Here is the input.
Amino acid sequence: MDLAAIRGVKIAFDVSLAGISRWAIGGPARAVVSAVTAEGVEQTLRTMRDRRDPFLVVGETSNLLFDSEGFDGVILRVGRGFDHCEIQETTVRAEAGISIPQLARLTADAGLSGLEHTVGIPGTLGGLVTMNGGSQRRGIGSHVGRVVYIDSDGRRGELSQEECRFAYRRSVLQEMNVVVVEVDLNLDRADAAVVHRSMDAVVESRRSRFPEHLPNCGSTFLSDPEMYATVGPPGRAIEDVGLKGFRRGGAQISEQHANFIVNTGGATSDDVLWLIAKIRRDVMQATGFAMDCEVRYVNKQGEVSAAHEAAQQRWPGGTSGGDSLPAHA
Ligand SMILES: Cc1cc2nc3c(=O)[nH]c(=O)nc-3n(C[C@H](O)[C@H](O)[C@H](O)COP(=O)(O)OP(=O)(O)OC[C@H]3O[C@@H](n4cnc5c(N)ncnc54)[C@H](O)[C@@H]3O)c2cc1C
Here is the structure.
């Protein structure tokens, strides 16, 4: 079947990934298929299996670095238009494309507590559950009751909270090659006004600390508890080695928060990966800790890996303290 004949999705061909990427980085993709119904997702996955098209599922791309050479395959986007949400008592059932700030505010309106820490995260529910994202050292996983997914043969399956194997910014979904279509969350009763006030405080605090005006993907590196206890969070470690504001091409280690890499205009995936390699090398040399990335890199074949792994492959000296990075770096 032709992709264009599938019902329940919207399709655009020859799309520039920079145009859909939060980092405004990325070359062309063959097509971007936006989910509208779960049946459309099933049909798309079966069609891509039959055509042997490589595919990658994305939400808001707020944790992804696309390659500047692009992706020779199809992007399946689960976002706006696939965002129905129902609340019964303390259980929320939502489609995976719902935006997190919108979902958090809907639960606050319903007098439910639990998603306060997520209100400033600019992703989708599918992306947040896959990443077990959250803030204030918490993850969405602790509220997940059930995840419904569609596998690469177009078959539906379900995972319980336990089966999701949530850990710090990790879940089994990162290895499953499936599309999350629906999530149940279990929340707690609370006063709506109190929940809204604490969400307002979270938003306000993030606004003052994080760069908002240049494209970025949030925190680049994960916070390691052992490193946190002795050296501090990644942003502090990067600042301490003097890299705040450091640039490579159009990419810059943010002046406002050193764990953010911003695109000041025309940054390439190599610019970002190079900065990641340099940060890792310098922090490793200064502290003995090898920082791992939260951000995920998508190569031209659509394979996804933690961005530091791709950076390490290209510039091996970036982590071992060798001299593969240019001398002036
Ligand atoms: C300014 C800013 C601030 C941020 N702050 C935080 C923060 O405080 N805490 C935090 O945890 N993160 C934060 N992030 C990172 C990011 O927003 C989260 O990881 C978010 O949950 C990713 O959601 P997404 O929809 O953008 O996923 P994407 O970036 O599109 O995808 C992330 C991963 O999930 C997979 N995926 C996405 N949707 C699905 C689906 N439906 N089914 C299966 N797999 C899927 C993708 O293949 C990819 O591997 C921030 C990002 C930005 C830009």
